Amino acid sequence: MPQGLDPSIHTGPTDSTHIMRALVEVSSDGLALLDVAGRFVMVNDAATQVLGLPAADLIGRPAPFVTTPEWNGPSARHTGAWPAPDGHRCDLEYRISPVGDDGYAVWFSDVTEARRQQERLAAITRAASRVAGSCSLRATLDAVAHEIVLTTNIAAVQILAVDDPADELRMLGMAGFGEAPDFIQRLSACRRRGAVVLFLKAIQTRKPVVVRHRKPVIMADPRWAPLHEIMDRPDWDDFVSLPMIVRDRIVGVINTYYVPGEDPCSDSLAFLEAMADHAAVATDTASLLSQTRSQAREQERRRLARELHDSAVQQLFSMRMQAKALRAELDRAGADPAAVCNAAEEIAQLSESALTDLRRLVFELRPLDLGAQSLVDAVRAHAESVETRTGIAVRVRVPSDLDPDAGIDLQEDVYRIVQEALHNVVKHARAASVDIRFARADEGGLVVEISDDGCGLYVAPGAAAAAPQDKLGLVSMRERAERWGGRLAAGPRKTGGWTVTVALPSAR
Asked: What is the pLDDT along the chain (508 residues), one digit of tens a residue?
């Protein structure tokens, strides 16, 4: 209790009024009285600071608070928007309660920055999820760009890849400009005209570049004429560019265009830096994935070259030797007809085997067009080809409701895993049948299982394996699965035969 106040003394109405007024004035939150029509009757100093208008301008003005009976109550918290005089939108959190029949008492505070911070954190979390789960770099960075725009103070975003600032740029993500497929071409035209491209400074200095009132400058500069129509679509004023840095390497920039009246404050820049980090990681991951795929293709070429040498080349060499032996036998006086027939039969068998191997290699080298057919259709076609060539029964089992809608690159890797597994069955398993089973994982991913009834032997726990699992192309298959965050398991079954299982997470 404040010193000097005796609790046994009851203050009169005048004293209570003075005390209440003093409490109202010293409150750091906005306090106001409204009449029954919802207009301001009285406000404290904190309210004028929150609302950005003096008391004289607020009295009699409609308040941004809902006064319906089912809405108000001393414990219920609500939010509303207030158009500040400087053009900003102010988000208010308030509690409202009736004051007899004369109107309402309202407590309120400005939660604009707190809500934006929550939106930014949510956007960062969603962007991180996109980077971790998406298979397409363009789809990932388009999503990151849209997350930035959804934070309300930014009108448009571009995410550009920069391999060399002097060379052509690549658009990786965009939001807020509408359809602009030729943006990069138009930007190149502006650069040739001598337009000052300020985001290059962000690349050179490795620091954010903030330019106030940039739009009027661009729209008045004829060197920017090729981009005037696109740049005029969003309502923006200030420009901020941030470098995308990963492993101490510049991989691109994020260009942001702020709505008029919105300042690029430190909190906003911190949010953009976090989003730039996610975009940089996605770009770097895509680059590493591309390198991995290039290495995989090179390994595939080497494998096919070895197979060609070990099968068709060796068989052709044997045919040549048999042909020479046959000619020598025919040139010899008193040639043995049986020896001639045996040599001719062996040449025929060798040629048939070489032809089969060459057809298989040609089939494997044939480009895979998953744009014209689905993953399941491609696997079915390959299974039919294997069955026709080898006589092994190959069954493909797919649930009726399964729709493997992952990206083309992921689908191709799944197809190549199935192709490699079938190749191993044909070459090593001595199997009579193979089952290829597609299924949806519990968490929404894809599972593909390839099982055969061949000579794979079950190894009891603790016993020594008959052969390392890294043989027979398993390394290549495992790498294809792991580059998408998946898992591959392979080994013999208790009932005989061998099973390869690949489980891939959802790309959404």
From this structure: 344 444 443 444 455 555 556 666 666 788 998 999 999 998 998 899 889 899 999 999 999 998 876 555 556 778 888 887 776 778 888 888 888 788 888 889 888 776 676 666 556 556 555 554 445 677 778 878 888 887 768 899 999 887 666 666 788 888 999 888 899 899 999 999 999 999 989 988 999 999 999 999 999 999 999 999 999 999 999 999 999 888 888 888 999 999 998 878 777 788 888 888 878 877 777 776 667 666 666 776 776 677 666 667 777 778 888 788 788 878 777 777 888 888 788 888 878 777 777 766 666 665 565 666 788 888 998 898 888 888 899 999 998 877 766 677 788 889 889 988 998 898 888 899 999 999 987 777 889 999 999 886 544 444 444 444 445 578 888 888 888 888 999 988 888 899 999 998 875 5
Tokens of 169: 């740029």
DSSP, res 226: G
Which helix (H) or strand (E) element contains residue 433?
strand 433-440
User: Looking up tokens 């388009």, which residue turns up?
Assistant: 142
From residue 390, alpha-carbon distances to 70, 350, 385, 433, 472 in Å are 76, 16, 9, 11, 19
> How far is C-alpha 202 from the geometric centre of its chain's CA atoms?
25
What are the chain's domains?
A: 13-110 (3.30.450.20), 115-290 (3.30.450.40), 370-508 (3.30.565.10)
Pairing of strands 433-440, 446-452: antiparallel
- Longest CA–CA span in the chain (Å) reads 144
What DSSP line would sit under 459-498, residue for residue? --TTSPPSS-TTTTTHHHHHHHHHTTT-EEEEEE-TTSSE
Task: Give per-residue burial for 432-443: e unless 16+ CB within 10 Å, then b.
Answer: eebbbbbbeeee
Tell how far CA 452 is from the center of its chain: 36
CA dihedral 211, 215, 220, 225 (to 10 degrees): 110
What is the distance between the alpha carbons of residues 258 and 277, in angstroms, rounded to a whole number? 20
Asked if 456 contacts 424 with a C-beta cutoff of 8 angstroms, the reply is no
Nearest to 437 by CA among 417, 423, 451, 455: 451
Do residues 238 and 256 lie in contact, with contact meaning Cβ atoms separated by under 8 Å? no
Separation CA 488–CA 474 (nearest Å): 9
How far apart are alpha carbons 500 and 478 in whole angstroms?
Answer: 10
Contact 456, 492 (CB under 8 A): yes
What is the C-alpha to C-alpha distance for residues 427 and 86, in angstroms, rounded to an integer? Answer: 76
Q: How many CB atoms lie within 10 A of CB 53?
A: 18
Sole residue written with tokens 């076609």 = 381
